[in-house]
Amino acid sequence: QVQLVESGGGLVQPGGSLRLSCAASIGIFSTYDMGWYRQAPGQERELVATITSVSNLNYADSVKGRFTISRDNAKNTVYLQMNSLKPEDTAVYYCNALRTTYGVRRNYWGQGTQVTVSS
Length: 119
Fold this sequence. Notes:
The protein is an all-beta fold. The protein is built from no helices and 11 strands. The strands form 2 sheets. Strands 2, 4, 5, 6, 9, 10 and 11 form a 7-stranded mixed β-sheet that branches. A 4-stranded antiparallel β-sheet has the order 1-3-8-7, with no helix packed on it.
């Protein structure tokens, strides 16, 4: 059974840091492109950062220079290091796993973890 479990969210003051983790039970983890998305109240879910199976990186402009995505294939885990957090980073953060093989698309989501940036 596919499972993505996020952890590491919480309440942090502006300027602070958090590290999110996503532990995946997903078969061959290294073959999946992994990503972090977020959704603030009343807004659409948006891409934060992605890391492909060959570790190509992509970031939303709003987080470039502050957030770092990484993966540890030995631990089946993807991370999001978030520094210099701002109130506008407040959202539920979701882990995503994506793979398309022979035309079959596999797209999985975690349950989300709340990040609140407030003084």
